Amino acid sequence: MSAPVRVLLADDHAVVRQGLRMYLSLDPGLEVVGEAANGQEAWEQAQLLRPDVVIMDLMMPVLDGIAATRRIRSAVPETEVLALTSALEEHRVNGAIEAGAISYLLKDASSETLCEAIHAAARGEVRLHPEAARRLVREFRSPDMREHLTPREVLTLQLIAQGHSNRDIARQLEISEVTVKTHVSRLLSKLGVDSRTQAALYALKHGVARLE
């Protein structure tokens, strides 16, 4: 049996953290290893605990969630950040993704949706609230670079946009994960983006993949 996904909760409301603990405790594959009441604490706890996933509120005191996400992704790149917020303003959605959040969900998400998104984030898979995805695609700025991609890279990009992990892509394309990582690295470089999430947005923006 694989080890549970280690999760850090970052939200300035204790009642929200308590609710999240309760939801996550129902999934034996998840383990809450710490809590933070503001972005500064989240950054410090992430460096100390090195969780697999941080559940990050965006509107917090001392240091907001966007700034905390940027610091965490810089200091602890193996830790993924899942933005969980009540905000859908473009500047917050764009800010979280540009800072390095792999996923963006709203606080009204069901416990099943949240738990699935946490497992997905730990595997490096993207999950976006549909309206957040639409706003991100509308605002996303990137030239069309498809002519510079090989057919295999285009297919890899489609699978990334569909939320697949490197392991899933390797299985579907019948290649090694090492080869997939090489394709993904080249993709990000050719597209001029920094993350899988931004690559997925590129795919949606230019019709390589579609919003469901």
UniProtKB/TrEMBL annotation:
Modified positions (4-aspartylphosphate) in chain numbering? D57
One protein family per Pfam: Response_reg
Give start and end of each HTH luxR-type domain.
Answer: 142-207
Q: Which residues form the Response regulatory domain?
A: 6-122
What is the top-level taxon of the source organism? Bacteria
Sorted alphabetically, which InterPro entries does this protein's record hold? CheY-like_superfamily (IPR011006), NreC/VraR/RcsB-like_REC (IPR058245), Sig_transdc_resp-reg_C-effctor (IPR016032), Sig_transdc_resp-reg_receiver (IPR001789), Tscrpt_reg_LuxR_C (IPR000792), WalR-like (IPR039420)
Keywords of the record? DNA-binding, Phosphoprotein
Q: Name one GO molecular function term.
A: DNA binding
What name goes with this protein?
Answer: Response regulator transcription factor
| Gene source species | Deinococcus sonorensis KR-87
